[in-house]
Amino acid sequence: MAEAHSTLVKEVVEQFGADRSRLMDIARALHGKLGHLSEDIIGEIADALGIHRVEVRDMVSFYAFLSRSPKGKTTIRLCNAVVERMNGADEIAQAFEEALGIRFGETTPDGAISLEYTPCMGMSDQPPSALVNGVPITGIRKADVPAIIDAIKKGGAVQSLPVAEIELNLRQSGPVIFAPMDRGAAVRRAVDMTPDEIIATMNTARLRGRGGAGFPLAMKWDFCRKAEGDAHYIICNADEGEPGTFKDRVILTEQPDLVFEGMTVAAFVIGAREGFLYLRAEYEYLLPHLEQVLARRRRLGLLGENICGREGFNFDIRIQLGAGAYICGEESALIESLEGKRGAPRDRPPFPVQKGYRNQPSSVNNVETLCCAARIMEKGAEWFSSIGTRDSTGAKLLSVSGDCERPGVYEVPYGATVATVLNMVGAEDAAAVQVGGPSGQCLAPRNFGRSISFEDIPTGGSFIVFGPQRNILESMHQFIEFFVEESCGWCVPCRVGAKHLDIIFRKILDGKGTRADYQQLEQVCMTVKTMSRCGLGQTAANPILTTMRNFPELYDALLQSDDFIPSFDLDKAIKEGCEITGRTPALEEHHV
Amino acid sequence: MAKPLVATGHFTGCFGCHMSILDIDERILDLVELVEFDKSPINDIKRFSRPVDIGLVEGGVSNDENVEFLRMFRENCKILIALGACAVTGGVPSIRNTVPLRECLQEAFIDGPTVVDGKIPDDPDIPILLDKVYPCHEVVKIDYFLPGCPPSADVIWAALTALLSGKPLDLPYEMVKYD
């Protein structure tokens, strides 16, 4: 057995050229074959790559989809994101637990099925959803659970179940992303221009990054192009992990050519021979389709050698799958992951445009940004900048979910107000909207006149609607739990601070919070926000900070007037000790 | 005017913070001029004879007796100070919080390599352990925190004299920096 595994490890490592930077693919491949990566296998991988086993363990232990202990033959990962829980995910969880006789985190005794939770998997428009060995199923109802389990037991054919049908939910297309495209037009236009002319075009179009931060694309490409290095890389960030976001899923389903077109234009500008599309593991089901599209582009001369007949313009794209880590949406963490390491963010500077992948100049761009760039090449900068506002040109894709009649993807010109969007999606009675996901802001009805734009409310596209029946602060607490789970653990303000936010916020929500607790919560928020190393920690307190600002009445209703309420519960704390020793506590009363 | 009363208490810790109190050296003579000690391990007074002005507590809360005495301190002290890392965060004893209580006791009294005829102690005279070691402020309201393992004598002296004189407490960074 051990020797068979040893041979298998060697084979897989060889398949990836014994290249240490392909550790993610090696680990994924072996995990797929063996079901988990034991300490022995980790050692074998390390030996085959000639690195220390700690490096392998370090990487493997980081990712949610890589397990180091045996799991069931099939793993059901039920999504427990906020929108999913608003739509009955807890009930579905209970149904799975009852049907299988195990709890989440456990495996059935026959080793057939494991139950796990997973954060937002990009299906918030069709909740509740789950991944069954990587295959997404959506719109699960309680009554579907027996059929799902039955299909798994009969050999794992969940693909044929009605729940395996993924809705596109493209509710409003628009001229920028979803208009019909002329394949190759953008690249053909690009090779007729000089890189400087293309940068000038992006500058005229005033295209800004769609991930949320809004960095001007022309500037990023220009920095990257001018940075010295042995090689330059274009990386497309398709790790959309912000809860409530799924627009990249729809783009990659409907317009993958436009994405690759944008990457190819970028490659021409910055002088890249190699590009990567970093695809979140939750979207693995899109991989065959994307590989097909890439193959077709190679056949059409849109990738490969001398692209579009341009002598010396050689470029190709590899798709890198992730393994379940929200933090890898942060560009420097993504690069680390792409290099086959744990997705811990890097210190900046140097920025990726100076030292990115393999320490070479790299431009990391959002899927949607690259689509816009391709469209600008096709239709011109003036056309693009005529849409939207002065500082926010073009349109934005919104992933709308939650309490609305028509959840899905909407292409909306920048400058549209929140109220306009709410009308569009059938949510006129919204009590709150979370714009930009947990790291964004929670808006109250009095803020609904504000606009989706870089100058007012910048967003990566997540737009979660809360109806009047919702307990908004409970959802905010779930967001905090998400950050606790997804913190990479590198820096104390984020790792420890987020946990403290969880504890103090919970105390307040349980009606045991005082004004002092509120002040302490505020203080910890500021520490986490200002002292954390990367964007995850810097935004982790936003669910609390923005509700403190926009929903003060919700906090007022919960806070107690007492001077102090202990979080300590003696009866609970002493229960186990009493059980172990068979004693009962004899406490003298000394009430505060 | 009567001298302000000070009490000190010790819970789950190593007595290092009390050693640090003694470490104020000959200033203890000044302190005795300034204050009167009530309940304290230093004078071995076991019970409060009256309410006091300042209480200093060392150690985290790991058993029912700790809870009882900490509550007693809160009830009897106008100002209560958590003294040292264990009182402030649970400290070294709270390392056991990562292991379930039953496993801790099992290892110590049943499975340990040097244990002969093991039995988990259940004598009514010994306190009952809590599931975890708690910092003092989760059990009662704490007014001030003096970090350190232990806080230096200078820190304790500065805090006490500032409180007694009603002046703001100014602790230079060097005095509370421990890494």
Please sum up the structure shown.
With 592 residues, chain A is of the alpha/beta class. Helices cover 43% and strands 12% of the residues of chain A. Chain A folds into 5 domains: 2-60, no CATH class; 74-167, Glutaredoxin (3-Layer(aba) Sandwich), CATH 3.40.30.10; 171-385, Rossmann fold, CATH 3.40.50; 398-466, Roll (Ubiquitin-like (UB roll)); 472-558, NADH-ubiquinone oxidoreductase 51kDa subunit, iron-sulphur binding domain (de novo design (two linked rop proteins)), CATH 1.20.1440.230.
Can you walk through the features of this model?
Chain A is of the alpha/beta class and 592 residues long. Chain A folds into 5 domains: 2-60, no CATH class; 74-167, 3-Layer(aba) Sandwich (Glutaredoxin), CATH 3.40.30; 171-385, NADH-ubiquinone oxidoreductase 51kDa subunit (Rossmann fold, 3-Layer(aba) Sandwich); 398-466, Ubiquitin-like (UB roll); 472-558, de novo design (two linked rop proteins) (Up-down Bundle). Chain A has 24 helices and 14 strands. In chain A, strand 10 (395-402) and strand 11 (408-413) form a beta hairpin. Chain A starts with a helix and ends in an 11-residue tail after the last helix. The model of chain A has no long low-confidence stretch (mean pLDDT 95). The radius of gyration of chain B is 18 Å and the shape is globular. With 179 residues, chain B is of the alpha/beta class. In chain B, the strands form 2 sheets. Chain B has a 5-stranded parallel β-sheet, with helices on both faces. Chain B has a two-stranded antiparallel ribbon with strand order 4-6. Chain B starts with a strand and ends with a helix. The chains are: A alpha/beta (592), B alpha/beta (179).
The low-confidence parts of chain A are none
CATH superfamily of chain B: NADH:ubiquinone oxidoreductase-like, 20kDa subunit
Low-confidence stretches of chain B: none
For the record, the CATH architecture of chain B stands as 3-Layer(aba) Sandwich
Q: Helical content of chain A, roughly?
A: 40-55%
Gyration radius of chain B (Cα, Å) is 18 Å
What is the overall shape of chain A? globular
What profile does the largest beta sheet of chain B have? 5 strands, parallel
CATH overall fold name of chain B: Rossmann fold
Strands ordered across the widest β-sheet of chain B: 2-1-3-5-7
CATH secondary-structure class of chain B: Alpha Beta
